[in-house]
Specification:
Blueprint: H1 3-18, H2 22-27, E1 29-37, E2 46-49, H3 50-64, E3 65-78, E4 81-92, E5 97-109, E6 112-122
Parallel strand pairs: 1-6
Antiparallel strand pairs: 1-2, 3-4, 4-5, 5-6
Amino acid sequence: MTNEETFKLLDRIGAAFARHDIDAMVGYFANDGEFVNAVGPDPHGTCYKGHAEIRGYFEGLFDRVEDVQWEKTDIRVVDDKAYAEWHRRATLKSGEAQDWLGVDVYTFANGKIAKKDTYIKVVG
């Protein structure tokens, strides 16, 4: 993919996240793609591999939140990698507000996400 194609793909991925469209979100991942969440039992977080595991994670997320939005603050593309900085705001069903800064490191292969590795800074 060209850098321009990658930027356009990232816009479509971001739009799917914004509308909480799990089918579209999962569809952007390769069949054996990985989502590495920042939160987990070790420094690497938790890895969800393949469509079923990735879908399960996001279904669980959207079950726990009233609202969650990611605002892009910067995106850089270099070859098959993209670096997307964002500001995440969420309200959990418990009423707890979350306010995080983060970055996703994407690796693409054949127009799909091969790996999405997330890093966060919790504000507050």
